[in-house]
Predict the structure.
Amino acid sequence: MNKSYKYDNCNFCGGRVSERRVQKACWWGEKLLAIVDNVPAGVCEQCGEKYYRAVILRQVENLIRNRKKLNKISVPLAEFVTR
Ligand SMILES: [Zn+2]
């Protein structure tokens, strides 16, 4: 579990990508939005782009599918209006 995965350099800026735990990662499912803490991801040290491995994505999907066990929060929904 502590073994960190080697990521390729960033596709966007060529920066170094290292494994971090992402807090408040947002996932849009078909009907549901979920926010997940502590998701392991490669994060570009220059531009902050995040790279999720397929195996991690599958685990997050399983987590969200089991939604009865999840904590719920309410979030404000707003629309940006140009003045
Ligand atoms: Zn980058």
Q: What stands out?
A: Residues 10, 12-13, 15, 44, 46-47, 49 surround zinc ion (CB under 6 Å).
